[in-house]
Amino acid sequence: MSTETGFGTALRQLRTAQKTAKGVSLYSRYVNRPAGRVCAAAAYRVGLSPNQVTLLSAVCSFAGIAAIALVHPSWGLGVCVYLALAFGFALDSADGQLARLRGGGSPAGEWLDHVVDCAKIVALHSAVLISFHRFADLPGDGWLLLPLGFQAVAVLIFFGGLLTDKLRAPRTAGTAPPAPSTARSLALLPVDYGVFCAVFLLFGGAGLFRAAYALLFGCYALFLVAFLAKWFRELSSEPSPG
Questions:
Q1: Which InterPro entries does this chain map to (predicted)?
Q2: What domains sit in the chain, N to C, each tagged with a CATH number?
Q3: What are residue 192's phi and psi, to 5 degrees?
């Protein structure tokens, strides 16, 4: 497709080049992917590459993360952090969509995307820990362990899901992807990154933020146990190589 293609044409073509919605939460399905589609069409129109969009996503996300660690929490800061993280998340969806619009991605592009995602997860919870230590009047020092636990659980979910996808047998050519389940998409909302970003809207209320952050940590921990059991069961049924 020529880069002279208009924004509207690129947007229409992107609507027909979406990944399956199976295993995707309602937020990603109805908010983040459509927002990423608009970003991808705009990026295509101005001639950006998928890797450049990935780096823009990293800039937005890490600007928000730096603000968490360096600036005293307030309601206004929370809104700014949320917008930076949410826009970075939309761009994270846009890079893959842009790659498909341009005819396919590359191993290097996929590698860069995953490295940025992993760095973002580690840095985000580290920034919360720094903010707790620098600015919060915590009920007890035990609260400093919460971001460390959340970080470990989030990294395990990210890595475990990524590795499971790589080890699964590829779908037979011509086989239609399974239909998405609305109930499953709703159930996955607590562990959607976009929902996690929204927690920072409470950043100005110290107790409210800690409570919401702890609640999401509990959800992530429960889902980790369920995901690990599911992924191990699925891979145990895969045929052995060779």
A1: CDP-OH_P_trans, CDP-OH_PTrfase_TM_dom, CDP_ALCOHOL_P_TRANSF_CS
A2: 7-162+202-236 (1.20.120.1760)
A3: -85, 135
Q: Which of 88, 196, 89 shows the shortest CA–CA distance to 151?
A: 196
CB atoms within 10 A of CB 207: 11
- What pLDDT digit, counting tens, does each position of 140-181 carry? 999 999 999 999 999 999 999 999 999 987 765 555 556 667
29-34's contacts with Cβ under 8 Å and 24+ in sequence apart are: 29/180, 29/185, 31/194, 32/89, 32/90, 32/93, 32/194, 33/93, 33/97
Report residue 40 as tokens.
């991808």
Contacts of 140 (CB under 8 A, 6+ apart): none
The pTM of the full predicted model, rounded to 2 decimals, is 0.89
* CA nearest to 79, candidates 97, 91, 67: 67
